[in-house]
Amino acid sequence: MPKLAFIGAGRMASAIVDGLIAQKAYEPNDIGCFTASGNSAAGLARRTGIRHCFTLDSCLEDASIVVIAFKPQHLASADPRLATLTSGKLVLSVLAAKTLARLRTSFPEARAIVRSMPNTPAAIGAGITGWCSDIPLNADDRMLLIRLLRAIGSEMEVPEKQIDALMAVSGCGPAFVFEFTAALREAGVAVGLERDQAQRLAVETVLGSGRLMARTQAEPEMLRNQVTSPNGTTFAGLQVMAARDFRGTILATVMAAKARSEELSRDA
Ligand SMILES: NC(=O)c1ccc[n+]([C@@H]2O[C@H](COP(=O)([O-])OP(=O)(O)OC[C@H]3O[C@@H](n4cnc5c(N)ncnc54)[C@H](OP(=O)(O)O)[C@@H]3O)[C@@H](O)[C@H]2O)c1
């Protein structure tokens, strides 16, 4: 019987399973997955070698950790037996906008509930997941959780009151970076490059700059200043960014995403 159970076997569950298996954090046989229709669970099991559980009971029986990885809208209609079948287990939810208090109503007997917000680079093991728990985790649970989340990148514990802010920065952030990259590509085309050249130059520049920031752990402003000579080409471009209030645009973008996240959490 699986020690780690996934309820839901879509993109997010796949990303976590791939990471766990790649890092040998679990044997495939120790992981099980269940979905109501069975369709994606069968596919995930076939692809990765984990167990496809045909019943919720068999999936959860021996599991110590249960990952809730269906869509937030599925929570209300999920099998009500999850309330008792998760008794004494650590429940990890990846459901956007579902608060710890709301999750506790569905998993009242869980030994602790973790609300997490992964982001899409999780699919290649390069995500960052923010998380909070409703009960302080004991040392063993903290270790289990961190091992699980590190399978898809890095993790950061935050108080629940910061989850909407985190959502706006790292949850939505990949889309903002993709939009910036697309804008850089379009600008490249506008100043004379072929589209495929501009696409490659923009993507490699974003990738390399991200790696440089991560590798040096330097403030981005410091790295920016290093490549900006007084009155040079980068300086000329940055002056336009400042004049057009680039930072103000990003601030408004993140504030709108946070406000929407708060709205969705209230309705959830
Ligand atoms: N994708 C991301 O980048 C991302 C980022 C952050 C958070 N999340 C969160 O991750 C969660 C899953 O997203 P996803 O992109 O992985 O979704 P997805 O690919 O659409 O997968 C949804 C899964 O839920 C299963 N399911 C549907 N109804 C169910 C039920 N009643 N009981 C059990 N399983 C059920 C589906 O099974 P069948 O297909 O077999 O019916 C499918 O495996 C969401 O809550 C989302 O907020 C995702």
Give an overview in words.
- The chain has 12 helices and 8 strands.
- It is of the alpha/beta class and 268 residues long.
- It starts with a strand and ends with a helix.
- NADP nicotinamide-adenine-dinucleotide phosphate (NAP) is lined by residues 7-13, 35-41, 69-72, 74, 77-78, 94-96, 117-120.
List the helices and strands and how they pair.
Layout: E1 4-7, H1 11-22, E2 31-34, H2 39-48, E3 51-52, H3 56-60, E4 65-68, H4 82-85, E5 90-93, H5 100-106, E6 112-117, E7 127-133, H6 139-150, E8 153-157, H7 163-171, H8 173-190, H9 195-216, H10 220-226, H11 233-243, H12 246-267
Parallel strand pairs: 1-2, 1-4, 2-3, 4-5, 5-6, 7-8
Antiparallel strand pairs: 6-7
Helix pairs in contact: 7-12, 8-9
This protein binds NADP nicotinamide-adenine-dinucleotide phosphate.
Residues 7-13, 35-41, 69-72, 74, 77-78, 94-96, 117-120 line the site of NADP nicotinamide-adenine-dinucleotide phosphate (NAP).
Corresponding CATH architecture of the largest domain:
3-Layer(aba) Sandwich
Helix content: 40-55%
CATH names the topology of the largest domain as Rossmann fold
Distance between the termini: 33 Å
Order of helices and strands: EHEHEHEHEHEEHEHHHHHH
Give the structural class.
alpha/beta
Highest-level CATH class of the largest domain: Alpha Beta
| Estimated radius of gyration | 21 Å
Bound molecules: NADP nicotinamide-adenine-dinucleotide phosphate
- The number of helical segments is 12
Total separate domains:
2
Shape: elongated
Tell how many strands the DSSP assignment holds. Answer: 8
Average pLDDT:
96
Looking at CATH, the homologous superfamily of the largest domain is NAD(P)-binding Rossmann-like Domain
Cross-sheet strand order for the largest sheet: 3-2-1-4-5-6-7-8
Main β sheet profile: 8 strands, mixed
Strand composition percent: 5-15%
Oligomer: single chain
